[in-house]
Amino acid sequence: MISFLTQLSQQRRFWAALVAIGIALELAALYYQYVLDEWPCVICIHIRIWIAGFVLLGIVALCLPPSRWSSRIFHGLNLLLMIGLLERSWQVLAIERGWVFGDCSMDLGMPDWFALDRWLPALFEVQTTCGYTPLILLNISMAEVLFAFALLAGMTALTLFASSWSTAR
Questions:
Q1: Would you say 42 and 106 are in contact if contact means Cβ atoms under 8 Å apart?
Q2: Exposed, middle or buried, 36 (CB in 10 Å: 0-12/13-18/19+)?
Q3: Under 8 Å CB-to-CB from 29, ≥6 apart: which residues?
Q4: CB 126 within 8 A of CB 117
Q5: pLDDT at residue 103 is higher than 70
Q6: Cα(99)–Cα(142) distance, rounded to whole angstroms?
Q7: What does the angle CA 34 – CA 123 – CA 14 come to, to the nearest 5 degrees?
Q8: Global confidence as pTM
């Protein structure tokens, strides 16, 4: 298992797969928004931002030549992005299920120097309040599917471990 993860952590197809997953998720979100009229809340937009972050990281990792240190740095940054994504995914699920009660505003909460909602409103503009996510398939809500990012975060942690372990030998 460690051997497989070590090889995976050093291959460009890991980053290509991450980019493909992220783009597919962003396209699915836009499909739900513009075709099915399921408008995004502030937490959903935060999730889109985290996803855009790991897509950009994957593109940078694909463009730069691989090295021991860049691999560790990229996998470490990816783990941080996945943890942030996992936290936002848990928050949207917890609000939907009533586990936590939070006031979800219409303000994205980004500073002026990072005003994604003004720069790219078609992708990052908050359009509804929190509390509901649409059903995707088999009565599974979008919030429940998003919480599956725990698997991606776990895989990321394992690849970080494998990339560090393989270079430590």
A1: yes
A2: exposed
A3: 40, 44, 48
A4: yes
A5: no
A6: 16
A7: 105
A8: 0.85
Q: How many CB atoms lie within 10 A of CB 28?
A: 13
For residue range 66-83, list pLDDT tens digits in order: 777 888 888 889 989 989
Tokens of 8: 């995976």
Structural domains present in the chain: 2-168 (1.20.1550.10)
Q: How far is CA 20 from CA 1, 85, 100, in A?
A: 24, 17, 32
The letter for the amino acid at 145 is V
CA distance 80 to 63: 20
Instruction: Count other Cβ atoms within 10 Å, centred on residue 167.
Output: 15
What span, in angstroms and rounded, lies between the C-alpha atoms of 117 and 109? 10
Task: Look at residue 21 and tell me whether its pLDDT is greater than 50.
Answer: yes
CB 153 within 8 A of CB 82: yes
